[in-house]
Amino acid sequence: MVTVRRWWGRKGLQVASLALVLGGAWILRQTQGAMLLEVYQVVTSPLQLLQSGQTPAERLEERLKDAQFMEMQTRIQELESQNQQLQNLLGYVQPEPVASRPVPARVVGRSADHWWQQVTLNRGSNSGIQEGYIVKAEGGLVGLVDSVTPNTSRVLLISDLKSQVGVTVSRTSAKGVLRGDSSAEAVLEFYEKVPNVKVGDLVSTSTYSQKFPSGLAVGKIKSLDLKKLPASVAKVELFPPIRSLDWVAVYPKPTNQPQETPQSKKQEQANQQ
């Protein structure tokens, strides 16, 4: 007991001081920790920016882009949800989509004399490909299989002068026929005399197309001639890289597509008047 008292006499002040410091630190952590953390972040933030190689302005721009992306993603999800609700309400029947399992193929033949007309693929009937099958590449629709051998397929490109594709302007549903122009652009002839369209509008395949399912991306309107007779026309910049095709995907042709006839065209125009 005497020994303990002697030890306390020598060490008691130090032990009490240590306990006071630890207690104060614990209280500070509980009450002021958040403030100290904020101060630490403010002090070290410039160092972190220097280490990342970004300036404050670049960091802010990146955050704004991230926020805009998330906002757009949220909006898209909302629109998809609203679209689904409307489809359910109206009993909408979705047109038959392009098959989910395409046949991948590579361009192995292309003539300089027919560069914009046709290409030959390294897959044919042995791979399940048939005449009338749809060919797509990155960006959208490329063309249609018009002849097949056991190991090859010939594709008529949408840039060919003989190509005709029923299309629609996504923003306003204005419809017309897209004709190839032997280039990376095509000519869109509208059914209406003065369609509701503008430069930059997106163009996709129409529900009236006899050869293609609706909704396949084609391109965007590059220029307009609303004074041309008998109907307005537009130059369409094609999305797929037809000039330098390499790999493509081949899909079965659609079935049960609505057929476009002169009567359907007249009825459509009458409904829009």
From TrEMBL:
Keywords: Cell shape. The keyword Glycoprotein does not apply. Residues 107-251 form the Rod shape-determining protein MreC beta-barrel core domain. Residues 252-273 are annotated as: Disordered. Residues 263-273 have a biased composition (Basic and acidic residues). The keyword Zinc does not apply. Pfam families: MreC (PF04085). It comes from the Bacteria. GO terms for cellular component: plasma membrane. GO terms for biological process: regulation of cell shape. InterPro entries: Cell/Rod_1 (IPR042177), Cell/Rod_MreC_2 (IPR042175), MreC (IPR007221), MreC_beta-barrel_core (IPR055342). Belongs to the MreC family. NCBIfam families: mreC (TIGR00219), PRK13922.6-2 (NF010527). This is Cell shape-determining protein MreC. It comes from Nostoc piscinale CENA21.
